[in-house]
């Protein structure tokens, strides 16, 4: 077997918080689940979406409903629009924003949550929320699940998330800053450096936490 260069997909993202005006807080929940999804191939990506109410709201907690036995990882994205109205669609190779297999249509996807390896629920600190809908470009929430393996005949999946939301503006807003994405590992290298995003958070913002996800695709 001859090893050729590998593609290293690295998602290193920092959760940034920015101060703002505060409002009293009352909460509600939204649940987004796959609708009897079935992977079409090994290492498949499937998406489902939920349209948000037009009123500005904030995510303050995310409860995952998934198992590492079924899902390799799960992402929650914010989108301005979605490529179709199917309950579940194949978003395996949708690089173009106009593709029927894209995650979002008409704009970049915004990371709202990332999950893997049976990670627990994620609550943002008191007084922090991720802003969606309203004047933002996040009008839909899309759950994307990476299925590592094909299912046995007759098996479907309903993994997803429950979001705890509020319509009242918290004192601080959170968002993701992607620090690094895709790189190449040349053969026979003991170490490879990957440049990070050198643009730091704006003044008045702080780094809450960092998530790192690595996926290696090897050509042989």
TrEMBL record:
Keywords, sorted A to Z: Glycoprotein, Monooxygenase, Oxidoreductase, Signal
Signal peptide start and end residues: 1-21
Gene Ontology CC: one annotated term: extracellular region
Residue ranges of domain Copper type II ascorbate-dependent monooxygenase N-terminal in the record: 32-148
Pfam families: Cu2_monooxygen
InterPro entries reported for this sequence: Cu2_ascorb_mOase_N, Cu2_ascorb_mOase_N_sf, PHM/PNGase_F_dom_sf
GO molecular function: copper ion binding; peptidylglycine monooxygenase activity
Record PANTHER family: PEPTIDYL-GLYCINE ALPHA-AMIDATING MONOOXYGENASE
The protein's name in its UniProt record: Peptidylglycine alpha-hydroxylating monooxygenase-like
């Amino acid at each position: 077997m001859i090893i050729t260069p590998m593609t290293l997909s690295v998602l290193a993202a920092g959760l940034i918080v920015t101060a703002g005006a505060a409002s009293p807080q009352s909460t509600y929940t939204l649940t987004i689940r796959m609708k009897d999804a079935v992977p079409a191939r090994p290492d498949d990506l499937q998406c489902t979406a939920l349209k948000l109410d037009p009123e500005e709201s904030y995510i303050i907690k995310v409860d995952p409903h998934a198992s590492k036995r079924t899902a390799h990882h799960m992402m929650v994205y914010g989108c301005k629009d979605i490529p179709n109205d199917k309950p579940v669609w194949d978003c395996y190779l949708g690089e173009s924003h106009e593709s029927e297999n894209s995650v979002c249509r008409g704009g970049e996807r915004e990371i709202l949550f990332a999950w893997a390896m049976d990670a627990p629920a994620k609550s943002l600190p008191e007084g922090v929320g991720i802003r969606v809908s309203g004047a933002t470009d996040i009008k839909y929430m899309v759950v994307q699940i990476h299925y590592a393996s094909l299912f046995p005949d007759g098996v479907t999946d309903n993994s997803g998330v429950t979001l705890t939301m509020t319509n009242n503006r918290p004192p601080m807003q959170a968002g993701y800053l992607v620090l690094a994405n895709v790189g190449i590992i040349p053969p026979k290298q003991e170490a490879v450096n990957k440049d990070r995003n050198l643009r730091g958070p704006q003044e008045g913002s702080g780094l809450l936490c960092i998530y790192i996800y690595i996926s290696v695709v090897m050509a042989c």
